[in-house]
Predict the structure.
Amino acid sequence: MELERRISYLAEACENWLHEENAYLQEAVERTVDEGYFSLPDVRNALQALRRSCTPEGLRTWVERAGLEEGHAPAPLTLCLHAGNLPLVGMQDALAVLLGGGRYSGKISRKDPYLMPTFLNEVKKTAGWNDRQVQWTHRLSDFEGMAHEAVLFAGSERSVPPVRRAVEEGDMASRDARFLVRTAGFSLAWVDRRDPRVMEDLTEAVFRYGGMGCRSVAVVVAPWPLDEIKCEWTDYIESFWLENPQYLQPGPALRHRFAYNKAVERPQAWLDHFLVQEGGLELDRDFICYWVQGDEETVADLAGQFGPRLQSVYLPHPEAEVPGWAERSEYLTDAQSPPLHWKPDGTDPLRWLTRQA
């Protein structure tokens, strides 16, 4: 299929899928919420972000950035092992395979079982891809003996080896298959202003999805100490939580950390099921955001220390800049609503699949 036709067909499939009267998607959303996978506000947020990005313009911008032209080498037969930590977190990988002209095999996460299949079925119905070109399952073993030429998956350093071993032992990858593995765990924000837009963007970036995504901000660098701003920031957080209650809840270890911080007189803001603390930058617990007083040089130093664990460095406005990190910098307002062409772990999956890089 020609490139321009793929763009047109995928845009049409996305529009039909995301239409407010799509009964299949509505049912998937209801089941997802009713069965306790994600909250309704978080699912709605994910869908709204896709409505803004999955447009003909968004797809063409991605194609241009990836360097694709008519007649490019097609993406290979690709196995996508989708994570389930956020609703529809695997959409970019699926779109990259289809937009690149490859055959897609998707392992749908049991943590997000209903949403992605409604999109894939819409692709086959609207865009003309058949069962051989687009297939998916909830059981990885269903792909045993199918020699995929490329494998995309995300996980932690602990989870990657067993997943890769399962793929290789099940003969799901050819001998010379390429693997694109993403392991970044969190992002960092530089905030040099306290105007409402920046504070609202920061709140969304930290607290959406309970801070569980690799694009979620776990470290904030700002010119002020936490104690100077925590009361002001708490107002923004409470306002956000009124419309987007935190769905995932921490265990008792978080309260233990609060008690420890109090004992050692570490500045902190206790939010009942989330903690913001200044200092003690261990990054060893969920539901904690770390506050660091500093400047742009502090941001650059921390980003270098975090290395591959860091996904993105967020900037609050176009005038802001972090020396040496222009390639990995994005705007804070896009943290939880990224464009299609964002680069997980610094790699564009569309460019990678079509060997443009």
